[in-house]
Amino acid sequence: MYSSFENPRLRLFAGALMISFSPVFVKLTDVAPTTSGFYRVLFGGVVVAIYLLLTRQRLTFKAAAWTALALSAVFFALDLWFWHRSILYIGPGLSTLLANFQVFIMMAAGIVLFGQKPGPRQIAAVPLAIAGLALVVGFDWQELPRDYQLGIVFGLLTAVCYAGYLLCMRQARMVSAHTVPTREIAVMSLLVAAMLGAAAFAEGVSLEIPTVSDLVWLLLYGVLANALGMLFIASSLSKVTTTEVGLALLLQPTCSFIWDILFFGRSFSVTEGTGAVLALAAIYLGSVRKSHQA
To answer: How far apart are CA 267 and CA 284, in angstroms?
Structure first.
């Protein structure tokens, strides 16, 4: 078993599969959106912190890394705040699909901040994503229910915040001497837990876990998605091609959409299904930087 997970490709896709269950766990728990986000990062952060203690790894960050980690925590807290509400309004599948539009925010950031020139496939991905989103959501915005409109807006805001998190975590990693970002994930997770705990207090939301089943789902959410899933993906990124990363990014929203259909009976028309396929294709094209990599 251990030797199998030495394979970076297996870790990459196993991590993406674990994270694809995130919106399912949120939907299954009978707690407020801020509460489920709080326990995701708390349980996940504690698990990684215990691992650091057992392996005697110290938090040796430069000042610049601490600043970047604090900013990444702010963005990730906002990411979870928006995404968990989007899941409740429009379901796990569509909310996760919209969250993965972060690919296009990252593309824009690459152009504006780092002077990166997008390739032909990335340029083609943008109108493809817009067309796919229009087919999934529908062309008559005013006819959509208010909650559904909010869910879509929150899903797109999730994408913006997720991109901000990735950019800040990228900055923290650039000044780190450690191969696997175990320390970064532990610190970021616990910082986010503190922020969401404060948000719950400000909202007047209880952090009580009402049932044993809710505790089980939240534990699975924290350990699988926030701890193992993120670590598996992070530890494999430097050892796989951009094409494989693109496929892993595609696996998460695809599986989340499938879980939404299988577990929660989501129905969709041919038009919506076509839009989802177009959006997923756009996410893949936008995430692969060089066509010669296989």
So the answer is: 24
Q: How far apart are CA 238 and CA 244, in angstroms?
A: 11
Q: Six-digit token pair at 119?
A: 């390739």
CA–CA separation, 97 and 94 (whole Å): 5
**pLDDT-above-90 percentage for the chain:** 53
Considering the entire predicted model, what is its pTM? 0.89
- Planar angle of CA 103, 86, 272, nearest 5 degrees: 70
- Alpha helix (H) ranges present in the chain? 8-20, 22-28, 33-54, 63-90, 92-99, 102-114, 120-137, 146-174, 182-203, 212-220, 230-236, 242-264, 270-287
> Is residue 58 within a helix (H) or strand (E), and if so which, with residue range?
none
Taking CB atoms within 8 Å and a gap of at least 24, the contacts of 192-196 are: 192/37, 192/41, 192/45, 192/73, 192/76, 192/77, 192/80, 193/38, 193/41, 193/42, 193/45, 195/73, 195/74, 195/77, 196/34, 196/37, 196/38, 196/41, 196/77, 196/80, 196/81
Exposure of 139 by Cβ count < 10 A (0-12 exposed, 13-18 middle, 19+ buried)?
exposed
Beta carbons within 10 angstroms of residue 209's beta carbon: 19
For residues 109 and 83, the model is more confident at 83
Q: What is the pLDDT of residues 138-186, one digit of tens each?
A: 767 888 899 999 999 999 999 999 999 988 988 888 877 777 788 999 9
Mean pLDDT within 177-199: 91
